[in-house]
Amino acid sequence: MQTSLVANIWPQTQTSWITKAMLVVIGTILLTISAKIRVPFYPVPMTMQVFVDLALGLVLGFRLALATVLLYLVEGAAYLPVFAGTPERGLGLPYMMGPTGGYLLGYIFAASAVGVLADRGWSRHWAKAIVACLIGLTLIYVPGIVWLGTVIGWDKPVLELGFTPFILGDLLKVLIAALGVTGIWHFGLSRPRS
Q1: CB of 82 within 8 A of CB of 32?
Q2: pLDDT for 142-173, tens place per residue?
Q3: CATH number at residue 67
């Protein structure tokens, strides 16, 4: 096991529960902000949740990334407007049980898997980081599409509603997250400290 990026930048992360708690809360804030951002893109505008979820795994490692996403979902279940489209499209468990519930569940799997791989050093090399993020993206889409089909019915165009309009933007997010984090490893941490 290697240390995460955040532990290399901020060594107190490994020993201080206050620092860990602060990072988890900051992570939930980033997830909330990323859910509210609307970036114009083709064929539909996109939010940045997938990017932040994958980046959290790469930067924080397994434990902190998992804790962050779990707290984020608890905040949403507690009727805080942390998800995309809230409060307009509903709040709390009713929102989470709706068509996007599987994607929310997938955020747990993705952050965990990417975090495990980051803990094994995959966030240090751009190709491995991209593969880790692609695995994470798959772990978001699979439960998301299965849940969507179950909720709206498999007779509907499930892939056209929950996959096709978003995959191009999400692949771009994978590249940005992977290259951004590996860039920090190589350019930010390789410089001598004064």
Answers
A1: yes
A2: 999 999 999 999 999 999 999 999 999 999 99
A3: 1.10.1760.20
Q: How many domains are contained in the chain? A: 1
The residue range of the domain holding 170 is: 5-185
Residue type, 92: G
- For residues 168 and 42, the answer to whether their CB atoms sit within 8 Å is yes
Note the residue count of the chain. Answer: 194
**Domain assignment present for 191:** no
Span 88-146, pLDDT tens digits: 999 999 999 999 999 999 999 999 999 999 999 999 999 999 999 999 999 999 999 99
